[in-house]
Amino acid sequence: MEFTGFHHEDFDVFQIDGFEERMNALKTIIRPKLEKLGSHFAPALTVLTGEEMFPHVAKHARRTVNPPNDTWVAFSTNSRGYKMLPHFQIGLWQTHIFIWFAIIYETKNKTEMGKILEANLDKIYAETDESFVWSQDHTKPEAIKHSQLTKEDLNALFQRLQTVKKAEILCGYHIPREEAVSMTPEQFLKKAETVLEQLIKLYKLIQNPRYPF
Q: Where are the extended beta strands (E) located within the chain?
């Protein structure tokens, strides 16, 4: 089966009441699509980063009572996990698709990463696409458009990554639900590819502070 794009039934999964009921729908309706995206983008990200990337479809294994309000496939250089590493995500909430470069709270060496980002503040602020968004919490659907951030706002996010234990930072792109369901599979794959190509710069900067962002 090829990737068939996103449809309203994918987003409607998050309206289903009951843990078992929503989890079953998530497994049967959304997870196969995330697995296809994982197979599609892992080789491309391997080429873009120069490191082997492995896909990880969210299993939500820790949840036993409250059903998930979002789900995703993540990509990292570790075949066994991704949360401890800078990684990429493609996933969805009820309201939108997200495509992220993510440093979440379990990531090792966050302080050093925050320092690298802060040292490159001017370049990052100037060269990030205005339509991209930033978030400091991967568990919430809200994000701030880059065009609405001042340089000082962005620097505060970078500094918080260095000083707050649970701090996170994510940069990427949101596709609203109505736009996502109107896209053909080819259009979605192309858009996601374009976003990931731009996010690669942040990933490479974290790996090598001398990378010419």
A: 54-57, 70-76, 87-93, 96-103, 133-135, 144-145, 169-176
